[in-house]
Amino acid sequence: MEKVEGESTFRTSSSSIVSSNEDLMMNVLSWLPVKVLSRFRCVCEQWNMLISNPYFVSTHQGRAIQNPNSTKLLCELKLEGLIRICSIEEKEKRKVTHDLIRPNYPERILQEHCYAHMVGRPCNGLICLEGSHFALVCNPATRNTVVIPIGKEKHEYYLEGLGFCSSSNEFKLVRLYRRSESYRCELFTVGQKGVHPLQPSRSWRHVGDFHYKICYPSFRIMCHVNGRVHWIVEPLSDSSSEYILYLDLELEEFKVVSCPKHWLEEARDENVDLIELGGELGVVFFNWVAWDIWVLKDYTNSIWSKEYHINENIPGYPLFNLRVIGIRRGQLLLIINDAVLCYYDPRNNSLEVIIQGCPDSYSWHVTTYIENLVMPL
């Protein structure tokens, strides 16, 4: 290849300009994926410090939210605490790549061969894992992990997962346990700013009780949306009505929202799920003809809007067993019959298969998350 005159000088000059201008370098690097940035941290101390800087982490996270390729799929494997990360590249022909990762378990846990399973859904790039006598908060993209003490044993406790409070920039781990005829809720703060003022010893804090029965089908789990964590509940004294109970993580107060008025009797119980869709709370239910997805527009007045109607009669796939796991470019990500991962386009009621069948032997605890550099502390 013929060398272009001045090319080497130009490249050296450009490299020097970028390296000497930290703002420019931060702007360029903040558009790159986590895997690339993890390698770049080894280039030099300057790059390592820049990529670890909280402002850079925040900038990168904001851009990742806007980039569809930053949305990954997490598939939990049953074997040795492994997690599969699936990337779907946006090209004319979908390209799916897989990475197997194992969180950085502490040495004492590895020695005991005690691996953890994923609890709840990812929250701002972090996930919660639970073992037999410990809990972990982990960033699956960087594998950085922090151990959370379970505390003293409580009868029938349920570790629910993570929520995030943007006003204090803190992650809060949520767990419930039965106490007579009510549920008691506790929080453990995993904060970017440090220790919570009400939690000087970094321990679990009691934040309140509620007198509702939580509906627990096998797939239904706590749903975090914009600083609130939600459950579908029904009164202990009257099981004919269902509500959305939520905990405001900033105020640490419980409140109730009425379900959509068009809630059908046959759509209750195992055919209902909560999902975060584009920063809003959605409720998905099957009315034996189609799947409807309602989105909560107003918490105070319990105002809902029906945003999606998935007709059951899509050629080739009966939809009696369907889960909505996310949204991307206006298309819903679905798992059908616990075996097929696909996009659903509501504009023409069509499916595009991404993964057919279950590779390896992982359980279809599949969920979406946005890859970032956030550190669990």
For the structure shown, list the relevant keywords.
377 residues; mainly beta; 5-stranded antiparallel β-sheet; 4-stranded antiparallel β-sheet; 6 helices; 46% strand; globular
Describe what this molecule looks like in 3D.
The chain has a domain at 7-55. It has six helices and 27 strands. The chain has helices spanning 7-20, 22-29, 34-40, 45-52, 54-66, 107-111; strands at residues 71-77, 83-89, 95-101, 117-123, 126-130, 135-138, 145-148, 157-165, 170-179, 182-191, 205-210, 212-214, 223-225, 228-235, 243-248, 253-258, 272-277, 280-286, 290-298, 303-311, 313-314, 317-318, 322-328, 331-336, 340-345, 350-356, 362-370. The strands form seven sheets. Strands 12, 13, 14, 15 and 16 form a five-stranded antiparallel beta sheet that branches. Residues 101-361 form the F-box associated beta-propeller type domain. Residues 22-56 form the F-box domain. This is F-box protein.
In a few lines, what is going on in this structure?
The chain is mainly beta. It is 15% helix and 46% strand. The chain has a domain at 7-55.
Please provide the count of β strands. 27
| Biggest sheet features | 5 strands, antiparallel
Q: Distance N terminus to C terminus? A: 51 Å
General shape: globular
Helix and strand composition category: mainly beta
Helix content: 10-25%
The overall average pLDDT, rounded, is 77
The fraction of residues in strands falls at over 45%
Poorly predicted spans:
7-15, 192-201
Number of alpha- plus pi-helical segments: 6
Question: Using only CA atoms, what is the Rg?
Answer: 23 Å
